[in-house]
Amino acid sequence: MKSAIKKFLVLILLSVIGAPGCSSPGDLIGPWRSKPVLKKRITVVPFIDFAGLGASDTERITEQVVEMLSKSPNLVIYPCPLEIAALSAPEKRGAMVEKAGELGFNALIIGQLNPHEIEIKKKGLWPFKRAVSSVHVSLFIDVLETTTGTLLLTLTQREEVELGEGDLSKTDETVSRRAWEKALPKILEDPVERVLEALENLTWIGRIIEVNGGDIKIDGGSDIGIIPLSIFEVFSAEEFVIAKDGRRYPTSWKRIGKIQVKEVRKTTSLAAPLKGGPFLPGQSVTLSD
Question: What is the pTM of this model?
Answer without folding.
Answer: 0.80
